Amino acid sequence: MAGRIASPCVGLCSTTVGDRVCRGCQRIDDEIRDWPALDGEARERRMTELDALRVEVAGRHLSVVDAAALEAQLVRHRIRFRADQPSLSRAVELLRVGRDRIRDLSRYGLAPVEPLDAATLHARLAADLLDAAEARREARASLS
User: Fold this and answer.
1) SS3 assignment, position 22
2) End-to-end alpha-carbon separation of the chain, Å?
3) Taking the mean position of all CA atoms in its chain, how far away is CA 12?
4) pLDDT digit string, tens, across residues 38-70
5) CB under 8 Å to 75, separation ≥6 — which residues?
């Protein structure tokens, strides 16, 4: 469907248990609430912001050395991604879904900064993403 912007939701909404920032998609609770009412341009802007957040945080922990291998593994394991989604943002999704099954990150086109297994790498990424998203929420709140 032309012009349609997918939701960043990954089906793990922690705002339903009281978090102000979703641990799954890193959106702020009001962004989740208001998503259906946003026009396409506003949704695209939010997706770009979320991708930038993931790229910035994931880039501290790993690099994508083979984007084609990463994409092939995402397709193979039926992990949802967008055509315009940056590779590091895609890597975050891969690790979220496959962290307990991935044994050799290089087969997925990924090179961690430190020699960590996928589960530990994901745990660090998730914690840093939550911190960064929380900082984003606080910055937005201070502008209001």
Assistant:
1) coil
2) 35
3) 12
4) 888 988 888 898 899 999 999 999 999 999 999
5) none
93 Cβ partners below 8 Å, 6+ apart?
10, 74, 79, 80, 81
Q: What is the distance between the alpha carbons of residues 63 and 29, in angstroms, rounded to a whole number?
A: 30
pLDDT exceeds 90 at position 16: no
CA distance 77 to 68: 14
Residue 82 to residue 70: CA distance in whole angstroms? 13
Structure tokens at 40: 């396409």
Model confidence pLDDT, tens digit, residues 126-137: 899 888 888 888
pTM of the model: 0.83
